[in-house]
Amino acid sequence: MNYLIGLLSVVFFILAISVIAKSMKLNKNLAEGEDESTPLDSSNNSNAYGMLIFWLLGTVAGVWSFLHSLPDFLPEAASKHGIDTDKMFWVSMAVVTFAFFATNTLLLFFAFKYRYNKNRKATFYPVNHKLELIWTVIPAVVMAILVFTGWRTWRDITSQAPSDAVVIEITGHQFGWYVRYAGNDDNQLGNQNYKLIDETNSVGIDFTDKNSFDDFTATELHIPKGKPVLLKIKAQDVLHSVYLPYQRVKMDAVPGMPTKFWFTPTISTDEMRAKLNNKDFNFKLNCTEICGRGHFGMAITVFVDEPADYKKWCAEQKPFLATNPSYLEKVPANLKAKASKYIPAEPIATDSTATAAAL
Amino acid sequence: MSTATTHAEEVHAHAHDHEHEHHEPNFIQKYIFSEDHKTIAKQYLIMGILWAFVGGSLSILFRLQLGFPEMQLDWLRPILGEWIDESGKLDKEFYLALVTMHGTIMVFFVLTAGLSGTFSNFLIPLQIGARDMASGFINMLSFWFFFLSSAVMFSSLFLETGPASGGWVIYPPLSALPQAMPGSGLGMTLWLTAMAFFIVSSLMGGINYICTIINLRTRGMTFTKMPLTIWSFFFTAILGLLSFPVLLSAALLLIFDRSFGTSFYLSEIYIQGQALPNMGGSPILYQHLFWFLGHPEVYIVLLPALGMTSEIIATNARKPIFGYRAMIGSMMGITVLAFIVWAHHMFVTGMNPFLGSVFMFLTLIIAVPSAVKAFNYITTLWKGNLIFTPAMLFSIGLVSLFISGGVTGIILGNSALDINLHDTYFVVAHFHLVMGSASFFGLMAGVYHWYPKMFGRMMNKTLGYIHFWATFVGVYCVFFPMHYTGIAGFPRRYYSFTALGNGREEAFTDLNMFISIAAILTFSAQAIFFWNFFYSIFKGKKATQNPWNSTTLEWTTPVEVGHGNWPGEIPAVYRWPYDYSKPGAESDFIPQNVPYSATPESNLPEENEEIANEKAIESLLAAQNESYNR
């Protein structure tokens, strides 16, 4: 850190000194009188050299800071499409870095080279159609290639999720995420309605839909490695955005408009821990759409399990109905029998009496 | 030079015969409720500078939080009061208010009003040869609506519940529901009110600019003889005129949703233990409407900067701008395309992915005219004879920043890559370089270049050089490293990065500290400008009539430009504005009002043919005078 601050202060210090030196020289020259026909002053050359120095220091600082930050960038993508987009990102980055470096070099170098010289006259060079055509076509072609590859990847990413995808509902609210799984029996999420939300039923599961009966909720996201995962994304109050940095997944959560994103995780939590040599590593799900006071802390932990482990974890989860049997009363009469299967034997008796009493 | 002076004298020698009536305006008419475009321009400029100071200070406050998350900020309590919480930290909601207001102020009040408002007003009549704007009264109203808007927006900073805090894009439902955050209460109401006034101001200004450019050009000033500044103001005004009303409608619908129970943007919301009755609205609708202005807005702030830069680079390279027509063509291309790329801000909002594909194609097309412009600037420097005035330095800085920030647009405009980068610091770095800093540099270049015409005095050049180098180095130090945190996936508008986990916050602690220090130093360096600007108004060296040896018409006016701009006849225009270092010419510049018949030694063959038209141009004088006396 001190190193960085030092570097910056040195740059500013050099600039200050050089300019002060220039201005002193300027004052001297003022006394001697200058060429009145141009707004020129004796700092002209210093400013020209400034361009060169800026280029040099800028290049060194740019390269050094990039190499310095490189190890701290997001590690290798942990999803199938992420590997593609990462590759494309670095290819595009190489192209634009080249363009950035070449044009800035020309700009600063020309500024230096063609600094004012009394004995020279600027070249009257108003137009050259051939040149203009060349530099219209080249960026256009490069752009077309980049766009085309980008478009193909985008098309694949946003295509219909495979029918065997694991469906998980994720709901953003101020300030956290609710996760609901389709359940161990039907892999179908039941309906949901925001008007049914209460303190326990935090996502508003609709128990008139039989697909809801085996749904279970969790406070962390478990997904199987190597299987397509379809996130059904919802928001309860304001906009949120699902961001899985390592899986390169991002999609807004919009109240009143369900969104989705499907992807295939390729690296499990354990593999990533081994890879980064960090036992405490965990994938995260963050929020990237401003949503209020707690926006920055709106995160849950994501576990990418081996398929077998994932199955095991799912099997251990109890349906919402099983942990909250009182919601059985919301089930319509014709489905009660089906729903009762999910109610554990013991509490059923007490609960049904309670319901009966209430009735 | 000699030709210029002779001609200027000729103009002065003319009898003072136009019948424009000269009342001596009293103090209020002259400096406050003035209808003179030059005074209005200065009013906009000074407001812009004051707003820039406010907007900049806000950014320093949140940079303190981001760079030094552990820092005790109790010492700010005398200014910020309760916004510093018990533990001596910035309040989390106030942090969001800071980023929101920083964005709003900088985009609208500094770079739209301060830049376009100042220079469109100042330069359009002077450079096209008009006595004033088409409607001085509407022009005055335009400024005072801006003032009203400013007053409302500024007052919102002092509310107990804080100013608007939902980000400068104020996406509903966050901005629509006061229960979602305190800033969405009265603060948002005032934000919307202020923006409504701002849009009114902007529209009145824009209509005036367009009318003036179309109708009040002096004799001989055809469209293809207009300086690129005027072209850029023209396109800017068209952009504003067509897109600001859409923002107004977005704001109105939001006002309805907030205050009258409609559901344009609201649907199926459960908040604070309560299910709201609103059904059927779409928050995405707001985003479409907002970005339909929001994207052209980028060019509204950028085009004037690019136009002025063209002028300044040509003047100080002593060389015609390369590809004058290509420059106009690119600006026209940018103007048209600016309207059909807005949804690239919305790739991951849940919008139909097919739309994403369409907008990706359109977005990357807009990179082509932008690239052409950059290449043309560079070629203009090639084999020039460069004089580094502070304005020239800032213009070169602008081109550099325009490129550096522009290239990453190619990455962000690619929807597949945008998935990971959307709403991260990569975006922050991108638009702060290409739009924020580049336009700011354009503003500075314009001030340094036209200051002698505005105030009849020169700014101190040496201070200008120090200001430039400190700002140029500083801006790169602040925004370039943000690409790194962006690639590392740091989301924007985060109060702190602790929730990213896995030691990622710690990895960039140094870098964030570096950015904050650089930001503080760069902001402090603006004090040099501040002082130079206000000191030179009163104590600067007296300016000469044409201090930069420039060709455009504003330099044919007297040093102290009076009401009506030219004491005698308005000069006629015979040639394009970029006759610098013309082969055969005695002087290295030939002003636009010098006829070809006066410069046989340097005329190109096709220009000799134009001598025949000079009589026709001159004969328009009577009609031109007539139009002012109606």
Relevant terms:
heterodimer; A: 359 residues; alpha+beta; Immunoglobulin-like; 2 domains; five-stranded mixed sheet; 9 helices; 10 strands; 45% helix; 15% strand; elongated; disordered C terminus; B: 630 residues; mainly alpha; Cytochrome C Oxidase, Chain A; two-stranded antiparallel sheet; 21 helices; globular
* Largest sheet entry of chain A: 5 strands, mixed
Strand content of chain A: 15-25%
Cα(first) to Cα(last) distance of chain B is 36 Å
Shape of chain B: globular
Structural class of chain A: alpha+beta
The name CATH uses for the topology of the domain at 34-227 in chain B is Cytochrome C Oxidase, Chain A
Largest sheet composition of chain B:
2 strands, antiparallel
Helix content of chain B: 55-70%
Question: Can you describe this structure?
Answer:
The complex is a heterodimer of chains A (359) and B (630). Chain A is of the alpha+beta class and 359 residues long. Chain A has two domains: 1-23 and 42-81 and 94-117, no CATH class; 166-342, Immunoglobulin-like. Helix content of chain A is 45%, strand content 15%. Chain A contains nine helices and ten strands. Chain A has helices spanning 2-32, 44-69, 80-113, 129-157, 269-276, 307-316, 320-323, 336-340, 345-358, and strands at 166-173, 176-181, 216-218, 221-224, 229-235, 240-244, 249-253, 259-263, 283-287, 300-305. In chain A, the strands form two sheets. Chain A has a five-stranded mixed β-sheet with strand order 3-2-1-5-8, with no helix packed on it. A five-stranded mixed β-sheet of chain A has the order 4-10-9-6-7. In chain A, a hairpin with a 4-residue loop joins strand 6 (240-244) and strand 7. In chain A, helix 3 (80-113) runs antiparallel to helix 4 (129-157). The longest helix of chain A has 34 residues, at 80-113. Mean pLDDT of chain A is 87; it is low at 347-359. Chain B has 630 residues and is mainly α. Chain B has a domain at 34-227: Cytochrome C Oxidase, Chain A (Up-down Bundle), CATH 1.20.210.10. Helix content of chain B is 62%, strand content 1%. Chain B has helices at residues 2-13, 27-32, 37-67, 77-80, 92-128, 136-156, 186-215, 228-259, 283-317, 324-338, 353-381, 390-412, 415-421, 425-455, 461-479, 482-487, 504-507, 509-539, 605-610, 614-618, 621-629; strands at 270-271, 274-275. In chain B, helix 5 (92-128) runs antiparallel to helix 6 (136-156) and helix 6 (136-156) runs antiparallel to helix 7. The model of chain B is unreliable at 1-20 (pLDDT under 50). At the A-B interface, helix 1, helix 2, helix 3, helix 4 and strand 7 of A face helix 5, strand 1, helix 9, helix 10 and helix 11 of B.
